[in-house]
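Worked example 2:
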Amino acid sequence: MIKVYGFPKTRTLRVTWMLEELGVDYEYQLVNFAKGDSQSPEFLAVNPAGKVPAIEIDGQVTFESGAIVTFLADKYASGKLIPEAGTLERAVHDQWSFFVLTELEQPLWTMGKHKFAIPKEHRVAEIFPTATWEFQRALALLSQGLGDKPYILGDSFSAADILIAHTLRWALSFKQSIEQDNLKSYLERVESRDSRSLADQRETQALAEQG
């Protein structure tokens, strides 16, 4: 059984979405940030950074959402939700996955850190225009790379699409504009998958059960 450590409306959704896509059973262990769970000795033993998501499988803990999503796709759906390792198709998949994590998400996380995540004395309000400019620049490159394809790799939905769509939704929650028509229709297409809805429900249920 896979145990997922997470909290709703975080990067954990990338992991639960992938697991729902795969149809793999899992346990959801809520790490309630509002109650300080992320800094508890028990959770810091899982992830010393005090961040979610993390997963435990066969006694081994793994964290970082991109690594987890890639691992799950390789383990349970290699060649379907992720191209086979060592192929050029896999290189393109990894290219866009790493682009999301290092270019598209990075300015959003900069905004998040300087809004709420880091101590107030370290927040710099002047960073927001630069972060917005960086995000829009990365967004334009993503739009160019997607072109008129339904998914980032072409006709087939992949793990990279989970990372991309989640990050685009994060951008909208941060009131960042997405003006490219191909990205608007792409986001609607990817988020309409049943697995996305099921992942939302699972996370919401976990929070409700804790009360």
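Residues 88-117 form the longest helix (30 residues). The chain has two domains: 2-80+195-210, 88-192.
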